[in-house]
Amino acid sequence: MTAEMLSLSNAPLLFIIAMAVKILVVFGLTMGIVAYATWVERKVIGHMQTRLGPMLTGWHGLLQPIADGIKLFFKEDIIPTQASKIPFILAPMMILIPSLITIAVVPFGSDLVVNFGGKAYAIPLQITDLNIGILYILAMAGLGVYGITLAGWSSNSKYSLLGGVRASAQMISYELAAGLAIVAVFMLSETLSLREIVALQSGSILDWYIWKQPLAFLLFLITGTAEINRTPFDMPEAESELVSGFCTEYSSMKYALFFMAEYANMIVVAAILSTLFLGGWSGPTPWGPVNLLGKIFSFMFFLMWIRATFPRVRYDQLMKLGWKVLLPLALANILVTGIVVVLQQ
Amino acid sequence: MIKEFIQGLSITFKHLLPGHSTTVQYPKVKLQPSERFRGLHRLVPTQDREKCVACYLCPTVCPAKCITVESAENEKGEKYPKVYQIDLLRCIFCGYCVEACPVEAIEMTGNYELANYHRDDFVFDKQRLLNTK
Ligand code: SF4
Ligand code: SF4
């Protein structure tokens, strides 16, 4: 008996239950990883700098994220006088929410076949499969900039305003190259659905797009790092001064939201990178979600490793790299991909 | 450029491997500061009183002007410091006071845990300085 694809029309109850479970698991897991990524980062960077990182709260500081959370909730929350209150409060959420909802289109396993009312249904392990998945990702990635600009503008502080402007300039310039790097992938796959892109790569490791599009992979790696403002591209936070850039005026939980967004963004970029170039959930092991998580964790470790190793670049170097190196390379890659695709037909 | 990139990454990775951490879990484990470490001052006692003869050399030499000495004479006709105070909030722990003292009445100890909750608690008077170990 072949399984029918589950949809709202053929089994509404099962569809709603499955959807709720998927949403809970994916967001729960994401937030859990976000919380513990802060601990892992402190540990990894600590050891790389020949110190230990947190040790006191729980075994090797394992309860540190919980302690931090409690502390942040009870810290005094300061809103500067004459700050524009509503945008000031909304800004952190405007950064966090887009990165969280981007996760919705990332497939994390093969279909799960479930018997329901005597019929077999295939539940796709993905919150939703949009046939314009990649465009959705690019659109959502673009939304985060509003939060940053708003945070800087509404703070009633010159540091924040300049930080916000700087951050948005950076994110916009890197988004271009990131988008173009992705374009090369879907020229190859001829689909915008992430589910199908993974399916195209699921044969063996050799089918992964990293082999066909090494340049695009590299470009997306760099632009992705810049887009989520990780070292060495963490200009929004500070250039040479240590005033936290656009979030200078934020305190307590609102400040923490920015950092939750940073880690959530890491997960998102890692998930997209794995899905587009490294076969997503398919391979090398038979367990889909494990594969994807493994790839996400490896990428996050890589970002932490980079952070512990390299100093941040200067702002003009950053802009130069974005506009004069990455963007032309991405365009050239599209041109070459286009020629190859046409010749193959 | 690629070579340097990988070199940098490998250096940090080597440090990640166990056995490289040099941190001391401070409040639980304490390191012994070296002999030459300049921590909190101490007035050296001798028999029934402090060694200090209230000569005013240390407040004179102190670059931070944080030593207050007021001399007086005791019943045996010896000069002694009626008031001897060091304001540790201003002290820069340069050790000049120790060098200047002609009778070695003041010395510096390895005591470095000097945190307090009130500004007043940083003013060390004669009694506290005499009791410093
Ligand atoms: S250590 Fe230096 S600054 Fe401190 S009391 Fe002595 S002379 Fe003054
Ligand atoms: S230099 Fe020595 S003897 Fe003179 S006042 Fe200072 S501590 Fe006392």
TrEMBL record, chain A:
- Name the principal localization, coarsely classed: membrane
The reply to whether Metal-binding figures as a keyword in the UniProt entry is: no
What keywords would UniProt list here? Cell membrane, Membrane, NAD, Quinone, Translocase, Transmembrane, Transmembrane helix, Ubiquinone
Q: Which domain of life is it from?
A: Bacteria
Q: Name one GO biological process term.
A: aerobic respiration
EC number(s) given by UniProt: 7.1.1.-
GO MF annotations for this entry? Answer: NADH dehydrogenase activity; oxidoreductase activity, acting on NAD(P)H, quinone or similar compound as acceptor; quinone binding
Q: Which InterPro entries match?
A: NADH_UbQ_OxRdtase_su1/FPO (IPR001694), NADH_UbQ_OxRdtase_su1_CS (IPR018086)
Q: What does this protein do?
A: NDH-1 shuttles electrons from NADH, via FMN and iron-sulfur (Fe-S) centers, to quinones in the respiratory chain. The immediate electron acceptor for the enzyme in this species is believed to be ubiquinone. Couples the redox reaction to proton translocation (for every two electrons transferred, four hydrogen ions are translocated across the cytoplasmic membrane), and thus conserves the redox energy in a proton gradient. This subunit may bind ubiquinone.
Official protein name in the record = NADH-quinone oxidoreductase subunit H
Organism field: Geothermobacter ehrlichii
What broad taxonomic lineage does this protein's source fall under?
Bacteria, Pseudomonadati, Thermodesulfobacteriota, Desulfuromonadia, Desulfuromonadales
Q: Which gene encodes it?
A: nuoH
UniProtKB/TrEMBL annotation, chain B:
The record's NCBIfam families line, in alphabetical order, gives: NuoI (TIGR01971)
The record's section on PANTHER family has: NADH DEHYDROGENASE UBIQUINONE IRON-SULFUR PROTEIN 8, MITOCHONDRIAL (PTHR10849), NADH-QUINONE OXIDOREDUCTASE SUBUNIT I 2 (PTHR10849:SF24)
Lineage of the species this protein comes from: Bacteria, Pseudomonadati, Thermodesulfobacteriota, Desulfuromonadia, Desulfuromonadales
- One of the record's GO molecular function terms: NADH dehydrogenase (quinone) (non-electrogenic) activity
Write down the species.
Geothermobacter ehrlichii
* Catalytic reaction equation(s): a quinone + NADH + 5 H(+)(in) = a quinol + NAD(+) + 4 H(+)(out)
Q: How does it assemble?
A: NDH-1 is composed of 14 different subunits. Subunits NuoA, H, J, K, L, M, N constitute the membrane sector of the complex.
Q: Which amino acids does the record list as binding [4Fe-4S] cluster 2? A: 62, 91, 94, 97
EC number(s)? 7.1.1.-
- Primary role: NDH-1 shuttles electrons from NADH, via FMN and iron-sulfur (Fe-S) centers, to quinones in the respiratory chain. The immediate electron acceptor for the enzyme in this species is believed to be ubiquinone. Couples the redox reaction to proton translocation (for every two electrons transferred, four hydrogen ions are translocated across the cytoplasmic membrane), and thus conserves the redox energy in a proton gradient.
Q: Extract the InterPro entries matched here.
A: 4Fe4S_Fe-S-bd (IPR017896), 4Fe4S_Fe_S_CS (IPR017900), NADH_quinone_OxRdtase_chainI (IPR010226)
EC class of this enzyme? translocase
Q: Which family does it belong to?
A: Belongs to the complex I 23 kDa subunit family.
Report the subcellular localization.
Answer: Cell membrane
**One Gene Ontology CC term in the entry:** plasma membrane
| Family annotation (Pfam families) | Fer4_7 (PF12838)
* Cofactors demanded by this protein: [4Fe-4S] cluster
Q: Where does [4Fe-4S] cluster 1 bind?
A: 52, 55, 58, 101
Assigned keywords, A-Z: 4Fe-4S, Cell membrane, Iron, Iron-sulfur, Membrane, Metal-binding, NAD, Quinone, Repeat, Translocase, Ubiquinone
Name-wise, this protein is: NADH-quinone oxidoreductase subunit I
- Which membrane topology describes this protein? Peripheral membrane protein
**Domain 4Fe-4S ferredoxin-type: residue ranges:** 43-72, 82-111
> According to the record, how does the cofactor bind?
Binds 2 [4Fe-4S] clusters per subunit.
